[in-house]
Amino acid sequence: MKISVDANVPARAVLDDEPAQSRAARKLLKETSLIAIQLPCLSELVWMLGQGVKLSKDGVATATGSLMNVGNVVVNRSAAELGLAILEAGRIFLPMARSPTRGPGWAVKHPCPSTSRPSPTWPDRAKPRNS
């Protein structure tokens, strides 16, 4: 089975805060042949770990890196690794953020990457804007 997950599945597997949900999440992650994790999901997970659970930057980077290195997990590795490097440098991790003034690909501070924002576009796929 191939799936794409939202941030709740890896969060439950990493945090182990709800025993039944954590077991189900780990079982799903272990038994699925391919798990696609979209960058907004990864951004939300990083936000949940850092802002919600208050893990240190190193803890967030370790947990996120461990998830990315699971054999059946597929993620845009170059963008995610860049986001983690930005996080470790003291900035916010939002590789999919879109700035209304600077265009796609710029990190903007937003409390939760999955709310109140139009779908982001990567620079290499961006269409020219008509001004």
Descriptive account of the structure:
This protein has helices at 8-15, 19-31, 39-52, 57-68, 77-88, and strands spanning 2-4, 34-36, 73-74, 98-99, 103-104. With 131 residues, the protein is mainly α. Strand 4 and strand 5 form a beta hairpin.
Oligomer: single chain
What is the H/E order? Answer: EHHEHHEHEE
DSSP summary: helix tally: 5
Which structural class should the secondary elements be placed in? Answer: mainly alpha
Percent in strands: 5-15%
The N- to C-terminal Cα distance equals: 45 Å
Number of strands: 5
| Approximate shape | globular
Mean of residue pLDDT values: 75
Task: Indicate the radius of gyration in whole angstroms.
Answer: 15 Å
Sheet bearing the most strands, described?
3 strands, parallel
Spatial arrangement of strands, main beta sheet: 1-2-3
Descriptors for this entry?
single chain; 131 residues; mainly alpha; three-stranded parallel β-sheet; two-stranded antiparallel ribbon; 5 strands; 9% strand; disordered C terminus
Quick take:
By secondary structure, the chain is mostly helical. Helices cover 45% and strands 9% of the residues.
